[in-house]
Amino acid sequence: MTALVFVDSASPAGRIADPQQPQLSVLDQGVTRGDGIFETAHYRAGAVRKLDAHLSRMQASAAALEIKLPSEEALRGAVDTAVAEFLKDYDDAAQATLEAAVKIVVTRGGEDADHGVAWVMVSALSASLLEQREKGIDVILLDRGYDSTVADRAPWLLMGAKTLSYAVNMAALRHAHHQGADDVIFTSTDGLVLEGPTSSVLIASTVDGVKTLTTPILETGILPGTTQGAIFAAAEKAGWDLGYGPLEPHHLMEADAVWLVSSVRLLAPINSIDGTKISRDAELHRDLQELVDQIM
Ligand code: PLP
């Protein structure tokens, strides 16, 4: 069962609510315009992983949209309460291996409201998502329709912010499913690799015994991934070389391994791009998996 907790100024720990009951005003611009922000973090082994990075990115998103955030203390209180509420349904043995998605949402509120509504939802992971970590995924490249300099030129597009307006991203995923693929990598109109609709792109190669990880440059307007950031920090300590590309599709085809990475799905190794099989180096995957397991 999904656990739901609203951030509530009257209670530092938040207010537990029933996710099966109506809770939100139809006048909230988060609902009528997708005008709000969110974060999705990963719960595992007793902790919400890299919550600091998620809250810090949420602050950046809030600043970009000029949305008022509740205090960090209130958000953390609601997260703790929601996780505790979610865990109630599981015995100790189940809790040891349990994973969950922790979603924090903040809306703009009604037309005349001076603040929006904030809540935390904790829910179990779908079997298909877990399966992708093992089996890997087939992706297609899709044109996002913007060039790679748009973020700088048109800040009102909110390119690096995690807004509630994910209808386009979900449409891209449906388009991929209709083509028999699992996921998407967006490209810019000038031919650069960007990101997935809900993930960052990572590529790895071993050259003269040195393992190298590369991800697209942020200036292309992609979301700064907290998973990519944490993997890079761990990889640097472990002696990997790191790079920020301008990456083009041929770099993906030539790499020893390519993944879509995100907080909850973690590492989804890519098996094929636009129907062409690509290399999936098992050793690099194992090494990267170890780094991902260290992330807290
Ligand atoms: N890019 C987009 C567009 C996303 O929606 C996400 C996550 O949902 C990511 C990248 C990966 O971000 P993170 O690693 O912080 O989950």
UniProtKB/TrEMBL annotation:
<comment type="similarity">
    <text>Belongs to the class-IV pyridoxal-phosphate-dependent aminotransferase family.</text>
</comment>
<dbReference type="InterPro" id="IPR001544">
    <property type="entry name" value="Aminotrans_IV"/>
</dbReference>
<dbReference type="InterPro" id="IPR050571">
    <property type="entry name" value="Class-IV_PLP-Dep_Aminotrnsfr"/>
</dbReference>
<dbReference type="InterPro" id="IPR043131">
    <property type="entry name" value="BCAT-like_N"/>
</dbReference>
<dbReference type="InterPro" id="IPR043132">
    <property type="entry name" value="BCAT-like_C"/>
</dbReference>
<dbReference type="GO" id="GO:0046394">
    <property type="term" value="P:carboxylic acid biosynthetic process"/>
</dbReference>
<protein>
    <submittedName>
        <fullName>4-amino-4-deoxychorismate lyase</fullName>
        <ecNumber>4.1.3.38</ecNumber>
    </submittedName>
</protein>
<dbReference type="GO" id="GO:0008696">
    <property type="term" value="F:4-amino-4-deoxychorismate lyase activity"/>
</dbReference>
<keyword id="KW-0456">Lyase</keyword>
<dbReference type="GO" id="GO:0005829">
    <property type="term" value="C:cytosol"/>
</dbReference>
<dbReference type="InterPro" id="IPR036038">
    <property type="entry name" value="Aminotransferase-like"/>
</dbReference>
<dbReference type="Pfam" id="PF01063">
    <property type="entry name" value="Aminotran_4"/>
</dbReference>
